[in-house]
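Cross-posting from the modeling subforum.

Setting up a comparison between two proteins and wanted a second pair of eyes on the formatting. Protein 1 (sequence, then structure tokens):
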Amino acid sequence: MSARLADLPAISPARVLELKREAAALKTTEGLKQTAALARIAQREGFPSWERLVAKAGGTEAVHDAKTANQGEAEIRHAERHANRLRRYGGGQ
């Protein structure tokens, strides 16, 4: 029997994004498929599935809104990674 959405733990869209990054790392380190990594993370957090976790956070639209709200931070992290690669491997000139 599936847990009712109201009975599941509270979770924010920003936390969903953090968990998604954790699942990506888990996928890499343990050789899991993305869906298996997401399911494992969801169960660890007390949810029967990744879909229920996202639904509790307000759905995919809420998670997407949280992601775009943090877009400026993501651009900064991307620029930092790019600068690190250039220092490490040279500018290709």
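Protein 2 (same layout):
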Amino acid sequence: MQDQPRILLIEAEPSLRHTLALILRHAGYAVTTACYTQDALRGADPPAYDLIFLDVDRGKPGSTELLELIHRLSPDVPALILAASLAVGTENTAGANERRAYLVKPIDPAKMLACIRDLLARSRPVAG
């Protein structure tokens, strides 16, 4: 299906990457996975995707830099950022003009899918 939203999923942990990809595909998304930031930079062109789903791990070199690079290369592509923990009050869903949303592990699949739907809806041009 050509009209499936395309998601680039960047997650280093194999079982989580596999599980998230299954959930996303079952929900109707076309998913490309990358294991490490280097894989994402080599094999993925961020503007070719409708959404980037990135696990940002402060202990993992390059993940924060990749997020900033993606934003510079394609500022209009929304990002769902997954983290092991965030400061209190940082977790949110996308606001009216925001292109990023944050989730903290463990992930609630229903909340994840709702965030993705919201981000994608906000990033589509309004017909009129």
